[in-house]
# Entry
Amino acid sequence: MQSEAVRQKAAEQDRRTLTVYHIPVCPFSQRLEILLTLKGFHQVDFQVVDITRPRPEWLLEKTRGTTALPVLETEKGEIVKESMVILQYLEDRFPEPAVAQRDPYRHAVEGMMNAMEGDFGAWGYRYVMNQDPDEREAFRQGMLDRYARLNDFLLEHNPSGMYLFEDFGLAETVFTPFFMRFWFLEYYEGFDLPPEERYARVRKWRDACVAHPAAQQVTKEQIVKLYYDYAKGAGNGALLPERSRSSFALEPYWRSRPWPPKDKYAHHATDGELGLSG
Amino acid sequence: MQSEAVRQKAAEQDRRTLTVYHIPVCPFSQRLEILLTLKGFHQVDFQVVDITRPRPEWLLEKTRGTTALPVLETEKGEIVKESMVILQYLEDRFPEPAVAQRDPYRHAVEGMMNAMEGDFGAWGYRYVMNQDPDEREAFRQGMLDRYARLNDFLLEHNPSGMYLFEDFGLAETVFTPFFMRFWFLEYYEGFDLPPEERYARVRKWRDACVAHPAAQQVTKEQIVKLYYDYAKGAGNGALLPERSRSSFALEPYWRSRPWPPKDKYAHHATDGELGLSG
# Structure
């Protein structure tokens, strides 16, 4: 009798659990992990999807054919897509402690900053994926201009502070995963913010963001190793010529692999060099 | 004494007024007008900015150099940009009657639909601005695919209804201005949704949206006349060769001008043909 009650309770609990289908190290998924960490909410079941294999049928059925992740499934089987929409959903469902601003104007300020995230992230990804050495300087300049825009925005709204407002909040949740992915620019492109006044405020912000305890889901080593194929122009788990395994493969585990060669323009690393043949 | 009190009251009233700087017939501005109409809120001062002239200095000072409109200024002089952010701000400030959904999942559903608006709108604008006859079919097909995506989404969430939910709400506020702008595709490209099942649900939605009493800020005649220059490849009030006035000019008033020629590919209408020389 007791075991039946326990089983029922577990099933009930199960039904009340949110599930997120995600790709490990995906920046859009890390946003959700950061938000949940800030809220101290741990009842979300994160299910890993292997980006290097075709999406399983059962998942495509849930998403009605779309392949973008993360996807959240509620305890009622409802599907929520798009990381910004999922963040809002989690904020609405679990309002305490608030991560987003509650005051309408402050909420609009973080909304304006978040409106820059798409272009900011897309540029960094195009930059790391670029294969034409003649385009490097234009990509570097475009990246700097985008950081400068964030710098201006922070100067306008919180010139002397650390974050956009008093604490690590929604804008930080949205941008930090990109700041961490952009370790691939540092490694493969030698990109960093020059020590100039034009970037001083955004540098302070970025450094505080990546150091925040709620945002430690990934490491620089992990990003650099997994994103090698992006640096060679192959995104989303696609396979490069003469390679049998993507750098995003779950096995061998990234920690056991060597750091990849930094030269993305002249050299094509083999499975062996990347520790992927084992 | 009484006149002093009146003056003070007026000044007080003034300070409590929101101002929107906008371009007449801009779809992003119409979103705000629709939302305010749905809320029955009329204390917003809409200030017209002439798109055919450089932005005035006082406005650039408010926006810190950005030229995109609409921009909202609060009674405290705070600036809010980006139509989606302004809609949220107005919803937060004036919550009754609600236009956005309040239930977290329903709010996420309208969020997912609104996440399609950027690509949907951008495609329609690129289509009308296309000058290469060989590209017409690809643009038409791309437009149809985007309508089909909306169709699927509506079928998933409200197969037999009219709107996304019971009433004209946030998603309708966001998409209706595009449905109305796309009258320019009907006129200059002969584009319409074919009478096929694939578009039946989105056609029903679109037709209900454009017919809604809260969305009657513009007319087809106005759109077709003002957007002639877009159909010839010149956006944002830019001047075409051998023309002295943009079709977006505030004078002569659009109503007094003739309907423009439909042929955008072979014919270049003069100021005179467009009723702009008067």
About this structure: The CA atoms of residues 220 and 273 of chain A lie 19 Å apart. The longest helix of chain A spans residues 136-157. The radius of gyration of chain A is 20 Å. Chain A touches chain B at residues 64, 74, 78, 80-82, 84-86, 88-89, 92-93, 104-105, 107-108, 111-112, 115, 152, 156 (CB under 8 Å).
